[in-house]
Design brief:
pyridoxal phosphate binding, 18% strand, 36% helix, binds pyridoxal-5'-phosphate, seven-stranded mixed β-sheet, alpha/beta, adenosylmethionine-8-amino-7-oxononanoate transaminase activity, globular, Aminotrans_3_PPA_site, 433 residues
């Protein structure tokens, strides 16, 4: 319903429908959207005053909830001092402070940080780093990537080239998407021993192609957009060992899993390994503003410096934006306070207990929980537009995709709010069973 908000701005939904693209939508078809006026804690307030509990953390980014006073205050201070400045030939304390924190929080060998403005670009940067590294050490033929199926790394061209090959993007954009090497996604689930066939298949790919492979890239432990699937930590260990054996760099994409989501600060810690290149985004700023980072080792940075270009060939306009860095500094201070650990453990316990019941609904294929991620997988694909109003009626903001009904709420959600989310998941799962 078109209306005006408290600032007298128009809620012109018709205009929105006719002129504004939303993610993965068509301009010819009406997709339902809700109008959000404000958000506080774990609650969204809609244009008509309705309140919804947020089960998505705004695509997995808003881990501290909305309107957190510490992040808002840090950003307000920065906004009044220096909201933006180019990063070519200039530096600033928000970037220096943030780099120190990232080096401290991630694993030892990662010492060099490149800031960009979105997860997809952090992945592009990681891929460029790997390619330039091999040029620098005289192996310019190592230019291909290897990855596992069902992955998602973003919508830009190089990142699409390592997304699941069956999702349509590869064929749709033809030769503009580079053909990379894929192996099937690991069979063994999180907590299970690795499937030896999967390791053999990967070894076989390495044996056949390692001379042309610059890096392996994957989402660690949790494949997100590929179906909220949690795989064996042992597989990740094997990947690291094979990369070492065959002289291939390992790029780990923690854009969705970083900063505690799976119960460890970084998901690679489940496997006790470290990457050569690490991609971060989403929760880096607590979800308040877009910022991403690609970290690499001294070894990778040296290779890039020794490459024919002599410099790393990337430099976005909004690189290391000070306002975004100030949000990230405040968000990481909150993470470093350490409360996230008990919060995520409690969320995990509660989701395990409350989602159990869904296992006996006829159309439920699987129920799984890891850290602060709760999933009900159905045996058929779901129509997001059709199910959306049911969730809204139940007072929650949950977006289904593929065949999964999932939640990844802010870590700060209360037990009562979480129960409202798990109840809504079960109600809808039962309704469509
Ligand atoms: N990598 C992973 C693992 C993601 O989950 C996403 C987004 O969902 C991306 C990369 C792309 O990030 P962005 O949407 O910020 O470009």
């Amino acid at each position: 319903v078109n209306s005006v908000n408290s600032e007298n701005q128009a809620w012109d939904f018709d205009f929105d429908r006719q002129h504004i693209w939303h993610p993965y939508t068509s301009m010819n078809q009406a997709f339902p959207v809700i109008g959000v006026e404000s958000a506080d804690g774990c609650e969204l307030t809609l244009n008509d005053g309705t309140k919804l509990i947020d089960g998505t953390s705004s695509w997995w980014a808003c881990v501290h909830g909305y309107n957190h006073p510490k992040i808002i205050s840090a950003m307000s201070k920065q906004l009044n001092m220096l909201p933006h400045i180019m990063f070519g030939g200039i530096t600033h304390t928000p970037a220096i402070e943030l780099t120190k924190k990232l080096i401290e929080m991630t694993c030892k060998p990662l010492t060099k940080v490149f800031f960009s403005d979105s997860g997809s670009i952090a992945v592009e940067v990681a891929i460029k780093m790997a390619l330039q590294y091999w040029q620098g050490i005289g192996k310019a033929n190592k230019q291909k990537l290897i990855t596992i199926k069902r992955g998602y790394h973003g919508d830009s061209f190089a990142s699409m080239s390592v997304c699941d090959p069956d999702n349509g993007m590869h064929t749709m954009f033809g030769d503009a998407v580079t053909k990379q090497h894929f192996v099937k996604a690991p069979q063994a689930k999180f907590g299970e021993p690795v499937n030896s066939g999967d390791v053999e298949a990967l070894r076989h790919k390495f044996i056949s192609h390692h001379n042309s492979i610059a890096a392996m890239i994957l989402e660690p432990i949790k494949q997100g957009a590929g179906g909220m699937y949690f795989y064996s930590a042992e597989y990740l260990k094997e990947v690291r060992a094979l990369c070492d054996e065959f002289n291939v760099l390992l790029i780990i994409d923690e854009i969705a899993t970083g900063f505690g989501r799976t119960g460890k600060l970084f998901a690679y810690e489940h496997a006790d390994i470290t990457p050569d290149i690490l991609c971060l985004g989403k929760a880096l700023t607590g979800g308040y503003i877009s910022l991403a980072a690609t970290l690499c080792t001294d070894k990778v940075a040296k290779g890039i410096s020794d490459s024919p270009a002599g410099v790393f060939m990337h430099g976005p306009t909004f690189m290391a934006n000070p306002l975004a860095c100030s949000a990230a500094n405040a968000s990481l201070d909150l993470i470093n306070e350490g409360k996230w650990q008990s919060q995520v453990i409690n969320l995990e316990k509660q989701m395990v207990a409350e989602l159990e019941e869904a296992k006996c609904y006829t159309a439920v294929k699987d129920v799984r929980v890891l850290g602060s991620i709760g999933v009900i997988e159905m045996d058929h694909s779901l129509n997001a537009a059709e199910l959306q109003p049911h969730f809204t009626e139940l007072g929650v903001w949950i977006r289904v995709f593929g065949s999964v009904i999932y939640i990844m709420p802010p870590y700060t959600i209360s037990p009562k709010q979480l129960t409202q989310l798990t109840t809504a998941m079960k109600v809808v799962a039962k309704m469509i069973s």
